[in-house]
Fold this sequence. Notes:
Helix content is 56%, strand content 7%. It is built from ten helices and five strands. It has a three-stranded antiparallel β-sheet. Strands 4-5 form a two-stranded parallel sheet.
Amino acid sequence: MSEWAPKRFWKEARAEELPGGGFTVTLDARRVKTPAKADLVLPTRALAEAIAAEWDAQEKKIDPHRMPLTRAANSAIDKVAVQREEVAELIAAYGGSDLLCYRATGPEALVSRQAEHWDPILDWAREKLGAPLVVTAGVIHVEQPRESIAALSARVAALSPFELAALHDLVALSGSLVLGLAVAHGAIKPARAWSLSRIDEDYQAELWGHDEEAAEAAEIKRAAFLQAHRFWTLVTVTG
């Protein structure tokens, strides 16, 4: 049997402004609901228009895999909003073991590459976020300054559910709260941030050659990382 999928039943998807504030998407004047049957209330017109475009792009059968913005918005409403504090704590916890703080013990080429590319991002976190972090060689856990963790946690806790949904993917996929925040603040381009998160893997590939399966998995994660940045941009755009 072929896999069942819901069929397209509407002619037009549109972004609509809501009387009480916010925006939504309508399918032939019927408001879209989340999987949990909540109203799809979106923070910006830009996000509503992009989600409407995803619905309009569906053909005979609905393919959720081609609707990443819709899925992210649903997650923000159905999951993040109802446990906002827990999600914020989960994201902030990455600051205590940030990828950029754990350096290789060798070879020297990798050590130098990490320092060259990661140190400027940590400098940014110290200067712009008020969060200096301790760097160590090896994988043994190092305690970070309490004030730095508090500063990073406060930044995360202040975000909306939609922003948290985007930041969660930026951080979880890269393994770095600092990189995620740097991308969100526009301090570094998302493609560049993704490359920086892959320094170790790319170095090993240079030495031993590329594994096709690993490269394919990495490309899927890269696409998801860039999509998370797009969601962040649409959520935070003004005007």
